[in-house]
Amino acid sequence: MLWPYAIRRPRTTRRTHVPIRALSIDPGSAIPLYQQVAADLRHKIISGLMPVGMQILPHRELATRYGVSVITINKALAGLVSDGLLHSRVGRGTFVAARPAPTPGIRPEGMLGFVLRDLSSPFFSLVAHAAQQRADASGFGLLFSSSSHREDREEEQIRRFRTLGVKGLVIVSMSRTYRLSEPIRALHEADFPYVMVSYTDGDDVPFVGCDFDRGGFLAGQHLIALGRRRFGYIADKIGSSLGELRECGYRRAVQEAGLRVEPAFEFEYPYEGEWNDYRSGYAVGTHVAGLATKPDAMFVHNDLGALGFQDGLLDHGVRVPDDIAVVGLDDIDLAARARVPLTTVRQPADRIGELAVESLLARLAGERPQTRQLLAPQLVVRHSCGAPPAMRSSERSLAPAARTPRRDAERRAVASES
After folding, report:
1. Is residue 102 a part of any domain in this protein?
2. Per-residue confidence band for 21, with pLDDT thresholds at 50, 70 and 90
3. Phi, psi torsion values for 204, nearest 5 degrees
4. Dihedral angle, C-alpha 358, 364, 369, 371, nearest 10 °
5. What is the reported pLDDT for 22?
6. Least confident among 53-57, 195-199, 397-401
7. Is residue 106 part of a domain?
8. pTM for the full model?
9. Are 64 and 54 in contact (CB under 8 A)?
10. What is the DSSP secondary structure assignment for residue 113, as one 8-state letter?
């Protein structure tokens, strides 16, 4: 039995501990220990076993009861304080601050899982944060696990989550083939509730994400309006579904202006994996800097690659945006703080995380939510595109115009890959 808290009593009464069974802590799990501890405490707060105002045991005693280090306890409690579930009083201790209200019809004792490529991913960490907030508000705990940049660990993470008894999974796949991996296909065939938040092909695959075709169109339309005429594109991998989706919209905008994306200015990331995207962008930027004839506009697969591309150009004497205008996609935090602040197409990370959890909750309530949910992107104008100061001063977000039907865009991408 683990007793993670103490009931506050009047000073004349001896403080007692109430034994409540806690989620077992598995030192062999790939899920960090502090997340397991935080998930157990969050579950007890949401379920009412730890009411508002209750004092948490001292950190050292909690560490002993959970069988972990004090550093692990400190990290677990810091996350709960940040989420507003706990608050600390100097010299007095840590107390339960709030209990999120469960969603009607959903039992409060559920746990969900979130499988990430990397817990520090600039974009998917934003999605994960929003998913956690939505889960908390619905009376569910959310466990996180990193596949540590290894595709072979996805199956291990999914298996461990199911062993822990999670009710549903939000998944960021390591695969850049954009098809279901075998362990995820097994979930699909077992009708286990899951939803992808990294792009995955298939009309029957639960997916919540951005309308990438529309995002590419916004990027191309903006660069044309700024007078650019020699267009290039950097894909994650030439022929990949996601790269083609972005390029389809970009190419369509350019063609509608009577121009074209030059084949000589089309590139792909030379290095595999999201963690290498900056490095890939830098390598392409270095190459482009050495060309006799250069593009004057470049749309890049994502912000990490765009930031690397910019630095590769700048380090080799090419000016951004004077010589080459650059637009990325994602709107990660680093985009606004780059050497040349990056114009980008914003994915609505907060809404993606919220909808992913809502989709799982609907499945658990016996409903059948929309299988594929595409959200409208927005253009965020900064310095890297060469827009006038009046346009970029407030990082203006352009509202999307008429949208291309989702299924048509996705089918074009699949057709181009086959």
Report:
1. no
2. very low
3. -95, 5
4. 90
5. 44
6. 397-401
7. no
8. 0.69
9. no
10. E
Distance of CA 365 to the CA centre of its chain: 25
What is the reported pLDDT for 109? 52
Angle between helices 241-256 and 212-225 (to 10 degrees): 40
CB 241 within 8 A of CB 178: yes
User: Which whole-number Å values give the CA distances from 211 to 249, 307, 345, 352, 405, in the listed order?
Assistant: 10, 22, 11, 11, 10
Number of Cβ within a 10 Å radius of residue 139: 22
Instruction: Collect all residues with Cβ–Cβ distance below 8 Å to 65 and sequence separation of at least 6.
Output: 2, 3, 4, 57
Enclosing domain of residue 76: 5-96
Per-residue pLDDT tens digits for 86-132: 888 767 788 888 766 554 544 445 789 998 876 677 888 889 889 98
Among candidate residues 212, 115, 215, 203, the one with its CA nearest the CA of residue 166? 115
Cβ neighbour number for residue 309 with a 10 Å cutoff: 34
66's enclosing H/E stretch is helix 59-66
Whether residue 332 is found in the same domain as residue 403: yes
Q: Collapse the DSSP code of 80 into the 3-class scheme (helix H, G, I; strand E, B; otherwise coil) and give the result.
A: helix
Strands (DSSP E) contained in 69-202 are: 86-89, 93-96, 111-116, 141-146, 168-171, 194-196
Residues 235 and 190 in one domain: no
CA distances from 204 to 44, 116, 195, 196, 371 (A): 36, 22, 11, 11, 7
pLDDT digits (tens, 9 = 90+) for 158-188: 888 887 789 999 998 866 667 777 888 888 8
